[in-house]
Amino acid sequence: MIRMVKVKNLSLSKSNVRQRNREVGLEELAESIDRNGLLQNLVVTPLKKAGTFTVKAGGRRLRAIQLLIDRGTLPVDHEVPVLVLAGEEAASVGASLAENRQRAPMNPADDCDAFRTLIEEFGMTVDQVAIQQVVSVRFVEQRLALANLAPAIFEALGAGEITLAVAQAYAVRADTDLQARVFEQMQRAYHGNNPDNIRRAMLNGTVKGNDAKARFVGREAYLAAGGRIAGDLFATEAEENWVDVDVLEAMATQKLEAAAAELAQDQGLGFVTPIAATHVPYDIERRLHEFHAPVRALTEEETARVEALSVENDALVEQLEQGLSEGSVEAQAAEARLTDIERELNEIQAARRAIDPALKAQLGTFVYIGGDGGVRVHARLFSEQPLVDPNAPPKVSGGSAVTESGNDADGDVDHGPKLSAALVDELATQRRQILVAHLASDQALALDLTIFLMAQNVVFEHSFIRDHSTLKVGAASFPISAFRDEGSMASQTIDDQRQKLDTSWAGYDTMTQRFDAFRALDDEARGAWVAFAVARTLEPTLNVADGYRSNGFHDHLGRLLGIQVEHWWRPTAENFFGRVKKDVMLDALYEIGGPTLRGRYKDAKKGDLARTCASLCNGQGIVEAEIREKASAWLPDVMRFDGIEKPSPLHSTFNADDEDDGDPADEEDLDEDHEGLSQAA
């Protein structure tokens, strides 16, 4: 619907896809509007405050008009035509993207971010995005490949420091570690911004000896296959550069394929896909259908056996606690019998989770390379097509069952009695109040529901489930969207924790069935779900005095958990020393070995100094035992959990006058916070 709205009631949406090049051609646009008027309406969505709107498409036109108002060229109460969208967020983001791409050229990084948002956050497919934006599927895929560039390269593209052709040259291989290494090399190279030079370097790059893929293949096997290593007599094996990446890739793939074939045969799986990387990319997972095997009910025979074993178990425990002396023959026999009982009970539980071989033949999983260089098996199962259960009962013709949503099995809606929309809303509200009053009085059920809704968010985070609850526990996003950390010890541990979660309840068709199955899990299984779901909501913070990333409460949590960061993260030339000033590195050497150690390297070049510091902090280098011990435990202060939370006044998060108003002052405050973080670092 087109309507006239005063400019003062419009604000720029924070979700407008044009984040870069916003000021390009603004003066010329303002002059055109002053001379010819506004030739194209803005696209907006309503805010909660009546009569106010946020501009989804046309942000440059809005700023140009605001510029004319500030100069007095247009009156303060000037009105402009707007098209009001009331649809879903994905549609407004798509509209913003489509219009911006048709006007002043967008920074390619904005294109990449917008395409990724439509796919990852709104569940659109590549084909759907291509149709919406009137571009080819290949174009969308190319932009998505750029979105997954190493962070430093993607930031350079967004800042206009490199051209689109240069970024595309780095994207010829998806290995972000290799991209980052070549990018660093090209920064110092003559003609380092030549796409052809970059492409050759990417296709002929080297790999460090401590790379997960190198450890997986093995040094001796690599050399035996004709692989070459570039290094010097003073370099450790971890610092060597493996030159023949193609040989390494082929050997890793061949070894993984053999592991995949063996696993498929042993487990009776339909397929096992080898991934020659340290994680399974999400875009590969989402092409498949995740499978969760429901736990079947106990048979009558199993129920009777479980009850008998439980009675016998309790009797033996009572004998051990009261009558039998420790170490006696009778006590040893009782303990051995308790072990047998536990094993039999576990076998009964395992049988309940067993998957029919005919169904299992339709399933598969992944094998990939762990950060330690070993083979890792993805704990979840997937199917290439929607599953067909060979043991499912045949569909009954001539009638259908009604599902929880009110739809029958054939998709026909059971309308029930005709009620007005207002009456439906009023009755729903009253019934909700009754439900809330009862749920609030049942603490056990409320706790189960809380954990269940959180767990369901984790399992189905990329699917839409109408659960009619505002409780959401989405994973916190990284500050750098393209940042990758899959190879770190912490990220691999998180992956292991996710794969060990009991998802047997997730295989049922309705929330009712899933909830009842979830409640049947033991306390440990449900506790694991709430711990994982809550933990992944934590946002990135650092131990800095002030700034956007400062949060002393996280430091308090770290101390409660007894975290020793030095066992989980070590500073290297790539992740720290090569990215700070020389004084920071010299101060680190002073903390480790005093003025003597600092003096040894005070005249070293920055690159050499970064490698020296990294070598020391990772247990390498020829130094005294005391210095080696201090270096192995050294951390930059920002990585320690030593911060103390400062008292701060509580501020209301709601302001009726400027709710979601896109005030530029808010962005300035955020910029100041980031500036404070940079100064602290």
Short description:
The protein is of the alpha+beta class. The chain is built from 27 helices and 13 strands. The strands form three sheets. A five-stranded mixed beta sheet has the order 1-5-3-4-2.
Provide key terms for this protein.
681 residues; 5-stranded mixed beta sheet; 13 strands; 49% helix; globular
Structure description:
Helices cover 49% and strands 7% of the residues. By secondary structure, it is of the alpha+beta class. The strands form 3 sheets. A 5-stranded mixed beta sheet has the order 1-5-3-4-2. Helix 1 (26-36) crosses helix 2 and helix 24 (582-601) packs across helix 25 (606-617). The longest helix is centred in the middle third of the chain and has 25 residues, at 329-353. It is globular.
Layout of secondary structure:
Layout: E1 2-6, E2 10-12, H1 26-36, E3 42-46, E4 53-57, H2 59-70, E5 79-84, H3 89-102, H4 108-120, H5 126-133, H6 137-147, H7 151-158, H8 164-170, H9 176-187, H10 195-203, E6 207-208, H11 212-217, H12 219-224, E7 229-230, E8 241-242, H13 245-267, E9 271-275, H14 282-285, E10 289-291, H15 300-322, H16 329-353, H17 357-360, E11 363-369, E12 375-377, E13 381-383, H18 421-439, H19 443-459, H20 489-500, H21 511-519, H22 523-535, H23 552-560, H24 582-601, H25 606-617, H26 625-633, H27 664-680
Parallel strand pairs: 2-4, 3-5, 9-11
Antiparallel strand pairs: 1-5, 3-4, 6-8, 7-8, 10-13, 11-12, 11-13
Helix pairs in contact: 1-2, 4-6, 5-6, 8-10, 15-16, 19-22, 24-25
